[in-house]
Task: inverse folding
């Protein structure tokens, strides 16, 4: 596939930014927007013919859906998030085949792949394939649903204005979501832990268990066509090893191994769960090998740091993608983020405690703020310093100082909020990681609306 992102990635090392840059995905605002726009072609609406008898609908919603045409019916791989978008994809597929749907396959249980199934089905009753354990241990605990909803809206920029919207890294900026999950049909055939090889509508098809983004994921292999459907264990972006909307630990090591297993098939075409397919045995196999290696490298570097006794914050600033991988078009951090992955691995394996006794029982935020003010020479001085660093476009530090100031009883908390809003927008403009950018902008809007005036999270 085309590689415009590579050019931009190479610019990164030449970019100068005011203030301390604390992430890996901050560049000057013009480059950031250009990079995000360059990703747009990965999810522009199209029916892509990936083999004589296989069509993939890209950009009909956030994820992809595919149709495999067999002798007396078709197979649908993934179904988008709701029936409205799925119906449009189904209609587009019908131009290529009007054979009945014999089977639907869910690569994993995330709603953007399962919620539109009913739109593909008429009077027929297709078999619906999913893994054993489908839907288990992949989502957020229901107890934290209320905050999960808010954080999810921020990560995806659901409430941003058109002027603020760019995209979601591996999906368009906005999608039809009012009917999410309404077309869901329950699986009727369980793929066992050992996988399954079968023939559906005359098409030989294999289901291989492949935990990664979710524990219940599988990839689909068509041995005759040599086409591989990866689900969300591969797409054109560094993988979302952790989602900032809040997710339980995604087993990073297993994810890397699952992708390595896919590479062994040397597919002629690789169809991701999101973004455009990759054609050609060499290109597909290399992409999968690189992807697996990148995940493994982040994991291994993190483990080294952990065992050296370093804190997650320290390791998050040290771990980088290897030189030969970082500019690959499918490893730019448009969606996933290396520093976030590091923190996720740390807490996934060891929990929240970083091993440093200082952090066993730290001061309460308000106490810390009062002592910071004392160090600065009083609340007024701390407030002035907060404004100075904002002026210098040292946005991350401005955020951190504003968080201290907001705790102080004698501070101008309204001013602190304004500084935080401005710093968030400054950071957002520099971000080409879509979830970070969307989160910064959404949070700034939430603060501005007054909805977060008492508690800023
Ligand atoms: Zn997805």
Result:
């Amino acid at each position: 596939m085309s590689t415009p992102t590579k050019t931009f990635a190479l610019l990164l090392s030449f970019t100068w930014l005011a203030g301390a840059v604390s992430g890996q995905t901050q560049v000057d605002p013009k480059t950031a927007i250009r990079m995000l726009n360059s990703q747009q072609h990965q999810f522009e609406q199209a029916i892509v013919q990936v083999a004589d008898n296989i069509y993939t609908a890209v950009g009909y919603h956030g994820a992809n859906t595919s149709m495999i045409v067999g002798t007396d019916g078709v197979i649908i791989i993934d179904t988008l998030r709701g029936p409205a978008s799925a119906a449009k994809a189904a209609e587009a597929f019908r131009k290529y085949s009007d054979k009945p749907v014999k089977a639907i396959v869910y690569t994993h249980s995330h709603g953007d792949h399962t919620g539109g199934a009913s739109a593909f089905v008429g009077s027929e009753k297709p078999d619906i394939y999913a893994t054993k354990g489908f839907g288990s241990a992949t989502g957020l605990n229901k107890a934290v649903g209320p905050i999960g909803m808010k954080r999810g809206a921020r990560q995806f920029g659901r409430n941003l204005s058109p002027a603020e919207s760019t995209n979601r890294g591996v999906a368009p900026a906005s999608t039809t979501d009012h009917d999410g999950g309404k077309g869901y049909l329950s699986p009727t055939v369980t793929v066992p832990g050992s996988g399954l090889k079968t023939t559906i509508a005359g098409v030989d098809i294999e289901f291989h268990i492949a935990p990664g983004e979710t524990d219940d994921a599988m990839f689909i292999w068509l041995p005759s066509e040599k086409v591989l459907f990866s689900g969300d264990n591969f797409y054109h972006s560094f993988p979302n090893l952790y989602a900032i909307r809040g997710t339980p630990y995604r087993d990073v090591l297993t994810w890397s191994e699952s992708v390595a297993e896919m590479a062994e098939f040397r597919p002629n075409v690789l169809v991701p769960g999101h973004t455009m397919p990759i054609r050609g045995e060499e290109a597909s196999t290399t992409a999968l090998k690189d992807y697996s290696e990148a995940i493994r490298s982040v994991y291994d570097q993190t483990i080294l740091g952990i065992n050296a006794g370093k804190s997650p914050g320290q390791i998050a600033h040290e771990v980088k993608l290897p030189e030969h991988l970082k500019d690959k078009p499918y490893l730019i951090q448009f969606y996933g983020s290396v520093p976030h992955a590091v923190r996720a691995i740390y807490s996934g394996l060891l929990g929240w405690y970083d091993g440093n006794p200082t952090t066993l029982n730290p001061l309460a935020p308000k106490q810390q703020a009062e002592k910071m003010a004392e160090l600065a020479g009083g609340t007024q001085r701390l407030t002035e310093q907060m404004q100075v660093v904002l002026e210098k476009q040292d946005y991350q530090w401005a955020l951190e100082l504003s968080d201290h100031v907001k705790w102080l009883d004698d501070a101008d908390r309204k001013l602190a909020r304004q500084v935080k809003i401005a710093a968030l927008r400054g950071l957002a403009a520099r971000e080409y990681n879509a979830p970070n950018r969307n989160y910064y902008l959404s949070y700034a809007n939430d603060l501005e609306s007054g909805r977060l005036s008492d508690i800023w999270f």
Q: What stands out?
A: The first strand starts at residue 46 and ends at 51.
